[in-house]
Specification:
With about 775 residues, the chain is of the alpha+beta class. The model is unreliable at about 1-10 (pLDDT under 50). Bound molecules: ligand MTE, hypoxanthine (HPA) and dioxothiomolybdenum(VI) ion. Ligand MTE binds near residues 483, 522, 524 and 526.
């Protein structure tokens, strides 16, 4: 509870201000609490996972006697011991918590060990003897195309007859583009702590983007009603989509252990196990054909997106649909066919990752636009501009009109100017003409990202606000904090509503018992949804307080305003805290649960029509790179970002999201490589072999600017969602590398696969050697 001296004197008008993250100080001091920091009650036990050592096969026998006899072991859990349903799948019932017969991927959880210490549990987990009748695994996209296995039916949409249009177009190109996956590498790994209560009650502290779904899955594996399970999340040390569905597994594991032992049980995955046991960004292979005119204007685009979904559906239905929604980026594609295959393989089930399939669909068309530019001998930026959505031609391939499509060319032109694109291109050409081995490249690419969950029912949120009689405010909502600053933004919105300094607002942990039936914090919609619900809740309470003050003063309610921590009307004024106290005395209810649902959106998947997105967020980025054509090494020399955040609720946090998203996307497209061996084992399962960007990879010249024109769609304070879209600004890095590769030989179309590791760059250069 704030001290009264803290409540006084601070500035009001909290929205649109660059306030620091509410936990910034705690993060730096190391005093922000994560799941593993919760003080362990007496008797807490630790869980480790016994993992399958083949990728595909049938479990014949399981001998756990040595595990049970190991020092410190209290319980050993196999599939038959799961008290409720042995199923952790979020969409289809296609993934067990523990293997029953069928082994679906290398490392899959076969049993769990519960021991006094984490170390004892981990040592004992290695002693399990399992006989698995192995089958040759299907590991890659090519394998899956041979087996024909799917996690969901193929799905396509489009407009016109793309194939015929392409065949009749003046020019045609086709290609295949391999796009790698990505490990989330949240700094805090998956962690859950379950504490059993009376009768069948279970409280779980989970590092989860989706406490509500975690509650459902814990209840399902325990075989109890949802109401017996409470899930709480104060914060995550990063989620990035990796804790949207897949945090549930570890919460379920901890809860089953707690149920069976009657003691508090914790699961915290070791980094190597986290790599092996949790899904990643989907890797894709895009097979494309395009037809266009002399000026590089597209007439028809036909793309098949092959997505490796892994062993089960998980969130792949939504991820691959979103890849389709972004397969046209912000371009007008007159005739277009977008197909998808949701491939099933014997690899860990791939899942949400910042952009949720959007980046993969988008980079494919950017690759195609570049190919058109090369073939026509036109600057790629001019091909981009010639194809943008425009007046009269403002519909995406799924038929939604982009309301503020004119934002796109305006931003691209601004960035073209501020990044000095044309002059730098000329300088780079001059440099390359005299530099035999080091080649430079530049690219300016656009981003248009749809905001809303594409599953309409998910676009809702709840918030619970209490005003206490000292004027301090308790805020709770269904969104989760993962570093993005959601809690700060929602607190700003509530402070603004009450006209009080932000210190009045006490942000509290997300808890399924306070706000029920929440959606995951995902699809970048955390602030849009929870901010609106909290504003509604605060507004209701404010209305009641205003009515009370109006009656007291004998003035109309509409004249009562809340500002500078006071309620005022004409010459009347009362401190907010005094008014709260008086309201309580007068028996005015000072609590409210708000609810918000996004209006106007609808989507009919079978007919592929509707308006799936409430609005679009735009961005543009210009990157310059240098490659060493002898070693394949690459550096990003400069990046200029311009990103559309609407009337930003918090420009400081938004800059953090834009820069962080860009760097994370740069890692995806350059150094982060997931390699499986032929047995389906992930061989890049630790920071020694899997390289995320570090401080020295940040471009030495790095200019970030926010585009802050108010959102024409009435979103919360006319801001725009910012969490995911900036990741796709990094496509400019890929395109700049492509530009540098072309400098070795302007003819032909290099096979530049993502990520652009040294091998990929050297292969791309080699692929051009025949083209003269
Ligand atoms: N920023 C940080 N620091 N940590 C994260 O885990 N996740 C991203 C993005 N930014 C993430 C992040 C993803 S995948 C999403 S969907 C959004 O934040 C979710 O939060 P929001 O809806 O509040 O923007
Ligand atoms: N984005 C992120 N997560 C989701 C979505 C989405 O569109 N749909 C379901 N989960
Ligand atoms: Mo973000 S991938 O929608 O969690």
């Amino acid at each position: 509870m704030p001290q009264s001296d803290v409540l006084e004197g601070a500035p009001t008008a909290a929205v649109h201000k660059p306030l620091p993250h509410d936990s910034a100080r705690l993060h730096v001091q190391g005093s922000a609490n994560y799941v593993d920091d919760i003080r362990e009650p007496e008797g807490t036990l630790h869980v480790a996972i016994g993992m399958a050592d083949v990728a595909a096969g049938e479990l014949k026998t399981l001998d756990l006697s040595a595990v049970k006899a190991a020092p410190g072991v209290v319980a050993v859990i196999a599939a038959a011991d799961v008290p409720g349903k042995n199923d952790i799948a979020p969409v289809f019932a296609d993934e067990p918590l523990l293997v029953e017969r069928e082994v679906m991927f290398h490392g899959q959880a076969v049993f769990a060990v519960v021991a006094r210490t984490r170390d004892e549990a981990r040592r004992a987990a290695r002693l399990g003897k399992m006989e698995i009748e192995a089958r040759p695994p299907s590991v890659t996209i090519a394998d899956a195309l041979k087996t024909g296995a799917r996690v969901q039916d193929d799905y396509a949409f489009g407009r016109g007859d793309a194939k015929a249009t392409i065949a009749a177009a003046p020019h045609r190109l086709e290609g295949q583009f391999v796009i790698g996956g990505q490990e989330h590498f949240y700094l805090e790994g998956q962690a859950s702590f379950a504490i059993p209560g009376e009768v069948d009650e279970m409280t779980v502290y989970a590092s989860s983007q989706d406490p509500t779904e975690t509650q459902h899955i814990v209840a399902r594996v325990l075989g109890v009603p949802d109401a017996f399970v409470t899930v709480e999340t104060r914060r995550m040390g990063g989620g990035f989509g990796g804790k949207e569905s897949q945090a549930c597994t570890w919460a379920a594991m901890a809860a089953v252990a707690a149920k069976l032992t009657g003691r508090p049980c914790k699961v915290r995955l070791d980094r190597d196990d986290d790599f092996a046991l949790t899904g990643k960004r989907h890797d894709f292979r895009a097979d494309w054909r395009v037809g266009y005119d002399d000026h590089g204007v597209v007439a028809g685009y036909d793309v098949m997106l092959n997505a490796r979904c892994g062993c089960s559906a998980d969130l792949s239905p939504g991820v691959v649909d979103r890849a389709m929604f972004h397969a046209g980026n912000g371009y007008w594609l007159p005739d277009v066919a977008i197909g998808t295959r949701r491939l099933k393989t014997n690899t860990v089930s791939n899942t949400a990752f910042r952009g949720f399939g959007g980046p993969q669909g988008m980079i494919a068309i950017e690759r195609v636009m570049d190919a058109i530019a090369r073939e026509r001998g036109i600057d790629p930026l001019d091909v981009c501009k010639a194809n943008l959505l425009r007046a009269g031609l403002d519909r995406t391939p799924y038929g939604q009109a982009a309301e503020d499509f004119e934002t796109q060319p305006a931003m691209i032109e601004e960035l073209e100017r501020t990044s000095d694109y044309r002059a730098r291109r000329a300088r780079i050409a001059a440099f390359n003409a005299t530099s035999p081995y080091i080649k430079r490249g530049i690219a300016l690419t656009p981003v248009m990202f749809g905001i809303s969950f594409t599953l309409i029912p998910m676009n809702q949120a709840g918030a619970l606000v209490h005003v206490y009689s000292d004027g301090s405010i308790h805020l709770n909502h269904g969104g989760t904090e993962m570093g993005q600053g959601l809690f700060t933004k929602v607190a700003q919105i509530v402070a603004e509503e009450f006209g009080v300094p932000i210190h009045f607002v006490r942000i509290t942990a997300t808890n399924t018992a306070k706000v029920a039936n929440a959606s995951p914090t995902a699809a970048s919609s955390g602030t849009d949804l929870n901010g609106m619900a909290a504003k509604i809740a605060a507004g209701e309470i404010k209305g009641r307080m205003a009515a009370y003050a109006a009656e007291l003063w004998g003035v109309p309610t509409e004249t009562v305003e809340f500002r500078d921590a006071c309620a005022v009307s004409g010459n009347h004024s009362m401190e907010f805290s005094a008014l709260a106290k008086a309201c309580r005395h007068a028996r005015v209810q000072l609590s409210h649960a708000g609810h918000y649902k996004t209006p106007e959106i609808h989507w009919d998947r079978a007919k592929a029509t509707g308006r799936p997105f409430y609005y679009f967020a735009y961005g543009a980025a210009c990157s310059e790179v240098a490659i060493d054509t002898l070693t394949g090494e690459m550096r990003v020399l400069r990046a200029d970002l311009l990103h559309d955040v609407g009337a930003s609720i918090n420009p400081a946090l938004d800059i953090g999201q834009v820069e962080g998203g860009f760097i994370q996307g740069m890692g995806w497209l350059t150094t982060e490589e997931l390699v499986h061996d032929s047995k389906g084992r992930l061989t890049t399962h630790a920071p020694a072999t899997y390289k995320i960007p570090v401080a020295s990879d940040v471009p030495p010249v790095f200019n970030t600017k926010l585009h802050t024109r108010a959102n024409p769609t009435p979103s919360i304070y006319r801001s725009k969602a910012v969490g995911e879209p900036p990741l796709m600004l990094a496509i400019s890095v890929y395109s700049a590398i492509l530009d540098a590769v072309h400098a070795t030989n302007p003819r032909g179309h290099p096979r530049l696969e993502a990520p652009c590791t040294p091998e990929s760059i050297l292969n791309a250069i080699a692929s051009l050697d025949g083209a003269r």
